[in-house]
Amino acid sequence: MIDVIMELRNDLKEKLSPLRYEHTLSVSFICTALAMCYSFNLDQAELAGLLHDCAKHYGNEEIIKKCRKQDILLTDDELKAPVVLHAKYGAWLAEHKYNITDQEVINAIRWHTTGRPDMSLLEKIVFTADFIEPRRERAPDLLHIRSIAFTDLDECVYQILKNTLEYLESKGKFVDSVSNQAYAYYKQVHNEKKGETR
């Protein structure tokens, strides 16, 4: 696996901007740390973290064209918020360019921008690592969110979704309906946990 990882790193270093590449490495390292914490396979976590932004060097319009060329279905929501599409096209690239056959890894790449209801453990790991990695510094409540990532992953996902949706709404930006569904799901998980502790 180390040969595959090193080959991927070399390829991504050539394609991504220096800052994006640093972010990619940081996410892959946080993915492995979270995998250790939650007893998940380290190779799968590192691989998903490395490839999560493998399509990020394409602009929004270019990704839309590439998705259409490959007959990848685009929703109205995705066309209204094309910034999320690098995840969908990245999942396609992982499978068809980088020859990833592990569906868990592909799904984790696919859902790392919007999240979705009832995510798998690896999906939650990549979704969380993308938000809390050390190079990120601007998000509100980042210290709090980082503090719970290694103790309650579902609560962390809820707080990330809440934070992200509040930010997007405050800026008047469109929110993908899948993110709203994910938020509703993890809010319910959050409320049920609070109810149990009373």
From TrEMBL:
Q: Which Gene3D superfamilies match?
A: Hypothetical protein af1432 (1.10.3210.10)
Q: Which domain of life is it from?
A: Bacteria
Which InterPro entries did the record assign? Diverse_Catalytic_Enzymes, HD/PDEase_dom, HD_domain, YqeK
Entry's CDD domains? HDc
Catalysis: reaction(s): P(1),P(4)-bis(5'-adenosyl) tetraphosphate + H2O = 2 ADP + 2 H(+)
List residues of the HD/PDEase domain: 16-144
Keyword Zinc-finger assigned: no
Q: Which SMART domains match?
A: HDc
Keyword tags? Hydrolase, Iron, Metal-binding, Nucleotide-binding
GO terms for MF: bis(5'-nucleosyl)-tetraphosphatase (symmetrical) activity
Provide the E.C. number(s) assigned to this enzyme.
3.6.1.41
Task: Output this protein's name.
Answer: bis(5'-nucleosyl)-tetraphosphatase (symmetrical)
Q: Which organism does this sequence originate in? A: Clostridium boliviensis
